[in-house]
Write a structure and sequence with these properties.
The chain has helices spanning 56-62, 89-103, 116-126, 147-157, 159-168, 170-179, 186-193, 203-214, 216-229, 249-258, 274-277, 279-290, and strands at 22-26, 29-36, 40-45, 66-71, 108-113, 131-137, 235-240, 263-267. Helices cover 42% and strands 17% of the residues. It has a domain at 22-145 and 216-290: Rossmann fold. It has an eight-stranded mixed β-sheet with strand order 1-2-4-3-5-6-7-8, with helices on both faces. The chain contains twelve helices and eight strands. The chain starts with 21 loop residues before the first strand and ends with a helix. By secondary structure, the protein is α/β, with parallel strands linked by helices.
Length: 292
């Protein structure tokens, strides 16, 4: 069941998500976000199939020094599931940009992982004067040409896999659960599973793997804009090396060649979901690079 405004009827545990939920009335409907702490704004961008809950330990570790803002894209987490929304990264970036301008975030550090990288970098490269730095991990910003990513996109785009994602919540129940290298409690994991209780709530999750190939032109333009607008910004790269898709030497090499002055922190035992696998290391790295 959803509320009349389209927001999913799900109440996070105060034990695991002890933050005040806020909503921004975006151009496509209510967008959920948290805004915790004071100091340098830190914009935290999630990927698939997660939401701001993914950043709970990082927010808890940094809100005494940073203003931590983490949102849920439309169709994810506690945000509305708008009718007619396409769930493309371009649309998610446009809504995020609305929130950044609404909150008047300036001097912000943008952190992105998975799809949060391209989406966050789209926002940052369109608003470079508001950006003081970047934190990127297990993500990319260029058209996906690697065989593993394109094969994954093709497989997840088939009618059979799309039905499993929508009807059986496959992306959460199987892919995410098996990819996590830490053992979450059942109470923690239900925040990923139960926040998308029906097939209608999983459209955004199902479309993200399709977009790996479908958003090629958008990613090509993003790559150009990143190199034109963001190279030279203070940058921290935090990469989990147990991620066979986005933790490889090839992916990390592209980042380090593009941002040669970036600080680099390797997370040897972390997989794709670095915020769950290595939150303490990430908190320490962000504090070291941007804490002053």
């Amino acid at each position: 069941m959803d509320r009349p405004d389209g927001v999913v009827d799900f109440t996070p545990s105060r034990e695991h998500f002890p933050f005040e939920s806020r909503w921004f009335e975006s151009s496509v409907g209510p967008v959920h976000y948290i805004d915790e702490g004071t100091g340098t704004p830190l914009l935290l961008m999630h990927g698939n199939p997660d939401w701001s809950f993914l950043y709970r330990k990082i927010v808890a570790g940094l809100r005494d020094r940073f203003r931590c803002v983490a949102l849920d894209y439309p169709g994810f987490g506690l945000s509305a599931h708008p009718t007619g929304y396409g769930y493309t990264p371009a649309e998610h970036a446009a809504v995020t940009r609305e929130l950044v301008e609404h909150l008047d975030l300036r001097g912000m550090v943008v952190m992105g992982q998975d799809w949060g990288g391209p989406i966050g970098l789209d926002v940052a490269s369109r608003l470079p004067d508001r950006v003081a730095g970047l934190v990127m991990g297990n993500t990319w910003f260029w058209p996906a040409e690697a065989r593993m990513m394109r094969s994954f996109s093709w497989m997840m785009s088939t009618a059979f896999m799309q039905r499993l994602i929508l009807d059986r919540n496959l992306f959460v129940n199987l892919l995410m659960k098996r990819t996590l290298r830490v053992k979450l409690s059942e109470e923690e994991f239900r925040h990923y599973r139960d926040v998308v209780p029906t097939p209608g709530h999983r459209k955004g999750i199902a479309d993200f793997p399709v977009q790996i190939r479908a958003s090629g032109p958008w990613l090509a333009e993003l790559e150009r804009r990143v190199k034109a607008e963001l190279v030279g910004k203070p940058t921290l790269l935090v990469f989990g090396r147990k991620d066979p898709a986005l933790g490889t030497k090839g992916v990390i090499g592209v980042w380090r060649r593009t941002f040669p002055d970036a600080s680099y922190v390797e997370l040897p035992n972390a997989g794709h979901y670095i915020q769950e696998d290595a939150p303490d290391e990430i908190v320490a790295a962000i504090s070291d690079v941007f804490g002053s």
